[in-house]
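Section 5: illustrative case.
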């Protein structure tokens, strides 16, 4: 008898995230869930691998996480490094699927490279594993701490649905990660649609509030996101209020005509 598919679950909000719990709940009946997540909040880590983290491993008791009968490890590591630790040291066999999330806050537009949630999914894809990143729209104030009133029912349903798809069929070449963003207030009936990344900056940087003693820049959501490019992830989330499903590629080469570009680069100054 073949073993159940192994599903590697990680996130960037830390091992005790309610979103991680929701992801495990959604995936539990689809295979053997194996959790390897940061021991603390790592939002904004992208795919970073800083030398300052120790990689120290901590097997967390099931009752502390309330994750059910799953193997769970917390690591002093970024999300991407958690995936590497899992793949090189921890998983009992090759995962059939990687799920990153469910993230506190949306991950859209040009800022996807900042996201630790997306970074972990890209790391999984670099190992050749079908990878899914799931994020839920939240107010900026909740991006690091979550929202105790959040109902993850819709996010869990969409996570389960796309996990089933990735476990049962192969995506076309160049669709290495599916980045899913669930709008605030979504229900089980909220439809989904394929989208592209918006080219507009979604999270606008704010200067540090020196009067309050803050030295770190903040950010806010762009003005009128509902007016973003039709068919983009931002438009889908804010105008259509649908679930946005964006295929991401490991190949970040610009989609430019090489002939035209070479002509310009080699032309006279």
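Designed sequence:
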């Amino acid at each position: 008898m073949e073993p159940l598919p192994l599903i590697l679950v990680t996130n960037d909000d830390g091992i005790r995230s309610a979103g991680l719990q929701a992801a495990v709940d959604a995936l539990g009946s689809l295979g053997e869930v194996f959790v390897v997540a940061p021991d603390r909040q790592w939002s904004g880590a992208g795919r970073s691998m800083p030398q300052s983290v120790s990689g120290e491993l901590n097997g967390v008791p099931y009752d502390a996480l309330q994750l059910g009968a799953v193997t769970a490890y917390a690591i002093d590591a970024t999300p991407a490094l958690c995936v590497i630790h899992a793949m090189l040291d921890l998983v009992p066999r090759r995962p059939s699927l990687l799920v990153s999330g469910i993230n506190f806050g949306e991950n859209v537009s040009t800022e996807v490279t900042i996201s630790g949630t997306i970074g972990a999914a890209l790391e999984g894809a670099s190992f050749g594993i079908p990878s899914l990143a799931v994020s839920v729209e939240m107010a900026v104030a909740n991006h690091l701490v979550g929202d105790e009133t959040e109902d993850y029912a819709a996010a869990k349903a969409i996570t389960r649905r796309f996990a089933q798809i990735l476990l049962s069929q192969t995506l076309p070449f160049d669709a290495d990660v599916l980045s899913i963003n669930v709008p605030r207030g979504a229900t089980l009936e909220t439809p989904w649609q394929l989208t592209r990344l918006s080219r507009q900056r979604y999270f606008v940087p704010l200067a540090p509030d020196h009067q309050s003693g803050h030295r770190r820049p903040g950010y806010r959501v762009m003005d009128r996101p509902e007016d973003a490019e039709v068919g983009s992830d931002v438009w889908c989330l804010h105008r259509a209020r649908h679930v946005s499903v964006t295929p991401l590629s490991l190949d970040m080469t610009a989609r430019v005509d090489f002939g035209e570009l070479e002509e310009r680069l080699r032309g006279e100054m």
